[in-house]
Amino acid sequence: LLHGASDIAFSNYGHEWRKMRKIFASEMLSNSNLDSAYNLRRQQVRKMVADTYEKAGGVVDIGELAFLTIMSSITSMVWGQTLKGHQGCAVKSEFRAVLREFMELLGAPNISDIFPLLARFDLQGIKRRAEKVSCQCDEILDSAINIHNSGEKSGQKDFLGHLLQLTKREDPATSLTLVQVKAMLMDIVVGGMDTTVTAVEWAMSLMLKHPKLVRKVQEELTEIVGLNTSVEEGHFPKLKYLEAVVKETFRLHPPIPLLVPHCPSKSTTVAGYT
């Protein structure tokens, strides 16, 4: 699923891991890159608000709404205007379906992890499903990359464009392979989507159980933002109570309670123990 552990989350600690982490932090998460994608995020949030308003008086699935919004926001930031029109919608729709199964497989308990001798039999079919999803992800990413390379790239400031530029560098210390680009794209999408959706669901659940919290958040929004103004990212530093609600949600229900497993790359002796 993760291109042979070529991504940041699961690759072995070493030169390549440090290089990818440095590139991701400096090239992808720089203020200029994030600012350039602000309008894309803004469009998706406004669309979510409009869709929710249309369902006033009905049932709103917060998890589904958050998933679609975050999925659209992340893919827009990753691909920018590379995928647009009917072709772009088709790719994004297919990617969304594949990602759902991808997330399910990542969290699925596998009996082969407990009894390695059973791995060859793939009793639950997880390996077969994972191989299928991996191929589908590769096809979608290859399609997006081909569209990007064959299209007009002037003025595009999406993450995919930045990563593809790194594959053309001659310096091994700052260049990436195409496999690493694909793995990093999956890190961006998967890492930023499931955790955020989970946090949104828990936050809304806790607030609905405590009406006083809802009123306080509404009062703060009215005071800081106003009744006739949309919430913008620039308002967040001033929304102290809302920030406290989010932090308390993370404390009570961390999206990832356990960190990605790590192990030493070589035997080490600490206090006489190996």
UniProtKB/TrEMBL annotation:
GO molecular function: heme binding; iron ion binding; monooxygenase activity; oxidoreductase activity, acting on paired donors, with incorporation or reduction of molecular oxygen
Annotated protein name in UniProt: Costunolide synthase
UniProt-listed InterPro entries: Cyt_P450, Cyt_P450_E_grp-I, Cyt_P450_sf
Signal peptide: none
